[in-house]
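Before a colleague's protein record goes any further, I have to sign it off. I want your independent view on whether this chain really folds as the tokens say. The record follows directly below this note.
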Amino acid sequence: MIRPSRAIVRRDAGLWACEGALHRRGFGLVAGADEAGRGACAGPLVVGACILPEGRRGQVPGLNDSKLLSAAVREEVYVEVVRRAVAWSVVVIPAGEVDRGGLHVMNLEGMRRALARLDPGPAYALTDGFPVRGLTVPTLAVPKGDATVACIAAASVLAKVTRDRIMVQMHARWPEYEFATHKGYVTPGHAAALTRHGPCPEHRFSYVNVRGVGGRAVLVEQVREDVSVEGVTA
């Protein structure tokens, strides 16, 4: 396996510096992968992967860590990422699969799936935060990569926008939880709804705050069927 010679990329060098260094060392297509929903107690885990083109076309206006963008700006950046990307993909892992496999295991598996779906495939993969084993190309885990590496930031926008759209759909089905507002994360309002109504099938029953509502969680878990959301994967 070919690995690039050692290079030091300063954190303040800009979003495109890391990919530029890899391009100069012969890695033409560099992919980034990131997730959305890791800290939520309801809804799916969503993983995005993206290869941006070299040069000015790959410099997506407004691109940044999805968490630092407003919802409106994220939507605009999402459209530009999809329009400009050499390849992109989104993988949706339902709450039930997160419960069965474990959050961290499914996070890594989601990155493998998202990267494997890229066509054309990358020559190098950069992942946000966690090293991902089992890839067929060289890879590097980048701490806070969604704020420092363009292709990871693009993947974070793909994942976040996709997941937010899913949570809005879930709000229409279970309005009592206000999923459209908090997107499944733990807030005082969400906690109060859990106490008042118990969990719905889209809650993660492996999470202590969901299990903490008592027997209603066990009952719903027994009858839960994973919800299939169409039109959100690439």
